[in-house]
Amino acid sequence: MESERGDGRVSLPRVTYVGGPTALLEWGGLRLLTDPTFDPAGATFTAGAYFLRKTQGPARPAASLLPVDAVLLSHDHHFDNLDQGGRAFLGQASRVLTTGAGAERLAHGAVGLVPWQETELTAPAGRVLRVTATPARHGPAHADRGPVIGFALAFRDDPTTVVYLSGDTVWYDGVGEVAARFPVRLALLFMGAARVAAVGPWHLTFTAEEGVEAARALGTAAILPVHFEGWEHFSESRPDIDRAFAAAGLAGRLRWPVAGVPTEIEG
């Protein structure tokens, strides 16, 4: 069991923030990559009425992150969560976990999950990581943008240390239920208050204030914001997040790893 380090602090993943929604988590001998996006800055994407432009390239090239035991893909149908470079990367991962609809569309033997469904990954030393799909709502309830999931991660021998990946979601009762069900110690929240003209004025990912709401619900969990930069359609940035958490007296809960640098996260 690795629930605590010698100094009494909880052992959490080492995180390499790559940019946008993409981060490498190294935990218990496993290497897990969130929503892979590796296209360069300036890349543009059009799908129906949607137009997205990427403003930052990845802090690390895809090849430098290998090997990857599993890609945790919140959804496959939006380019800012799976761009062309990210899609090409999927075949190099041992497993891809995503939505049921996404698994049907993707090759590479992707595994589809629905909220609260579990699967397991075995680490090289034999420890078993339980992966639970969590609910997410990608914007207002009246405008469906297709299924999205998040993930709750915990080793079977240490169920009280949970890492939560929100995926693209706003604050709603589904996220509140995640907080009620799991003793989350680290939460990677997809923030930036994404807004796309084709959808209207509504935000599609956590606003800074919703991030504060989630942090309060998640007790003492460390909060690591992702997906708040690197694309034109984000309406909030790191300063907005810092201000909201400081105003709420929660600035000490934020974790800001340096892009591209493996960082030990303190719980």
List low-pLDDT spans: 1-9
**Helix share of residues?**
10-25%
What is the CATH superfamily classification?
Answer: Ribonuclease Z/Hydroxyacylglutathione hydrolase-like
Question: Which second-level CATH architecture applies?
Answer: 4-Layer Sandwich
Structural key phrases:
about 270 residues, alpha/beta, Metallo-beta-lactamase, Chain A, seven-stranded mixed β-sheet, six-stranded mixed β-sheet, globular, disordered N terminus
Task: Tell me about this structure.
The chain is of the alpha/beta class. The protein has a single domain (14-250), classed as Metallo-beta-lactamase, Chain A (4-Layer Sandwich). Helix content is 15%, strand content 27%. It is built from five helices and 15 strands. The chain has helices spanning 84-89, 100-105, 173-181, 208-217, 238-247; strands at residues 14-19, 22-27, 30-34, 44-47, 50-53, 70-72, 96-99, 111-113, 118-122, 128-135, 149-155, 162-165, 184-190, 222-226, 263-264. Strands 8-7-6-3-2-1-15 form a seven-stranded mixed beta sheet. β7 (96-99), α2 and β8 (111-113) form a beta-alpha-beta unit. The longest helix has 10 residues, at 208-217. The protein is globular, with a radius of gyration of 17 Å.
